[in-house]
């Protein structure tokens, strides 16, 4: 089941580096739920020798009951956060980091990283954590722990045969 949660925008910052192998670094610096910014498309807010700042709107965050464990893992961590998956793209002849997905699920972020995607984190606001906690309280049910059967060490014909084989191999 899907629940509409929030519409957000991501601000990405490009910072120049004094490094000949990597001349700049991109990273998300803010997630905002401002309705005007969340409805905006992508646009450059600032560009110059000291770097660039881009806004990417239009991320509608939905919560899914089958991701409840991932939300629980996020809010139970010491620093609950947003996960932003982004990729480098060429726009108007420039390399720009473009966010492709925003999630609050720890498990979904882990799957993205396992698939080789670039995922960065940003702290979640107390209001977002509170709403996510309420969702988790309503929908998350941990799987019951299963009893494991202890292995039998009482012997039997197969164990005696294995012991004879090991004894013969070790000179016993």
Automatic annotation (TrEMBL):
Name this polypeptide is given: DUF3305 domain-containing protein
Region (Disordered): 141-172
Native source species: Noviherbaspirillum denitrificans
Domain of life: Bacteria
Pfam families, per the entry: DUF3305
InterPro entries: DUF3305 (IPR021736)
């Amino acid at each position: 089941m899907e629940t509409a949660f929030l519409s957000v925008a991501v601000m990405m910052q490009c910072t120049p580096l004094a490094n000949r192998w990597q001349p700049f670094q991109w990273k998300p610096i803010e997630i905002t739920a401002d309705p005007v910014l969340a409805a905006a498309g992508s646009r450059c807010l600032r560009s110059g020798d000291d770097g660039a700042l881009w806004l990417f709107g239009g991320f509608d965050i939905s919560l899914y009951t089958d991701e409840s464990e991932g939300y629980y893992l996020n809010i139970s961590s010491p620093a609950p956060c947003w996960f932003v998956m982004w990729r480098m793209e060429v726009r108007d002849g420039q390399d720009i980091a473009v966010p492709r997905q925003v999630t609050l699920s720890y498990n979904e972020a882990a799957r993205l990283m396992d698939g080789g995607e670039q995922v960065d984190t940003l702290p979640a606001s107390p209001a977002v954590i509170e709403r996510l906690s309420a969702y988790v309280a309503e929908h998350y049910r941990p799987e019951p722990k299963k009893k494991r059967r202890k292995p039998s060490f009482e012997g039997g014909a197969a164990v005696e045969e294995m012991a004879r084989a090991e004894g013969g191999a070790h000179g016993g």
